[in-house]
Design a protein that fits this description.
By secondary structure, the protein is α/β, with parallel strands linked by helices. The protein has one domain (2-212): TIM Barrel, CATH 3.20.20. The protein has eight helices and eight strands. It has helices at residues 15-22, 46-51, 69-72, 94-104, 148-160, 178-184, 193-196, 201-212; strands at 2-5, 29-34, 60-65, 83-87, 107-112, 130-134, 166-170, 188-191. It has an eight-stranded parallel beta sheet. Strand 6 (130-134), helix 5 (148-160) and strand 7 form a beta-alpha-beta unit. It is globular. The termini are close together. The mean pLDDT is 97. Bound molecules: D-xylitol-5-phosphate and zinc ion (ZN). Residues 6, 30, 32, 63, 170, 190 line the site of zinc ion.
Length: 214
């Protein structure tokens, strides 16, 4: 299991320091980009994400909760090991989002809301590298994990079979439930409030890793 700390619960006035605090125990940094349309919240966009480049060498895991991923993805400066994830429910057609992100030369991720059937992403699984399973309604940090996500992760595992797709899971993951999420088949754990919720993000990330491995 690899960790992708979500900056949504970090101190936005000190993002570079927050990243540095978790760098040694993380595989990615998760950026929640919101447009106030796809979700009823606003965060940050390409200028902020791009500016943080020079503060870390970790790959970026960019989660686009926006209606027009194909329009805005090219504004992110990416590296081959980064992933840009779009939502299958967004307004831009998934084929278009996949094509545009692929052309940028990074990995392509697809995500779905908790109530969207898995069948909605099935036609695209052969063209993406990463699936982000939402275990809360996208939009806000600090929500309760939806237990139905566990069955969904197992179904997705079966569906992708031997294909080398990464399964990332996002929302409500804490030391108390992380083991179940990993056992269901998650490769990457996204966690915001469990890591940046209080004083020591690095200690909190280490605790999550320990809990995941039992
Ligand atoms: C929610 C975001 C998540 C969020 C997770 O829309 O996609 O990445 O930061 O936060 P926690 O871990 O607090 O549920
Ligand atoms: Zn996210």
């Amino acid at each position: 299991m690899r960790l992708s700390p979500s900056l949504l619960s970090a101190d936005f006035g000190r993002l570079a320091e927050e990243i540095r605090a978790v760098e040694s125990v993380s595989a990615y940094i998760h950026f929640d980009v919101m447009d106030g349309h796809f979700v009823p919240n606003l965060t940050f966009g390409p200028p902020v994400v791009n500016a943080l480049r020079r503060h870390t060498s970790l790959p970026f895991d960019i989660h686009l909760m926006i209606e027009h991923p194909a329009r805005y993805a090219p504004r992110f400066r990416v590296r081959p090991e980064d992933v840009i994830t779009f939502h299958v429910e967004a307004q831009d057609p998934p084929e278009e989002a996949i094509r545009v992100i692929r052309e940028l030369g990074c990995r392509v991720g697809i995500s779905l809301r908790p109530r969207t059937p898995l069948s909605a992403i099935e036609p695209y699984l052969s063209r993406v590298d990463w699936v982000l399973v939402m275990s809360v309604e996208p939009g806000f940090g600090g929500q309760e994990f939806m237990p139905d996500a566990l069955e969904r992760i197992r179904e997705l595992r079966d569906l992708i079979g031997g294909r080398g797709l990464t399964i990332a899971v996002d929302g409500g993951i804490k030391p108390a439930n992380v083991r179940a999420v990993v056992e269901a088949g998650a490769d990457v754990i996204v966690a915001g409030s469990a890591i940046f919720g209080d004083g020591d993000p690095r200690a909190a990330a280490e605790e999550l890793l320990r809990a995941a491995h039992g």
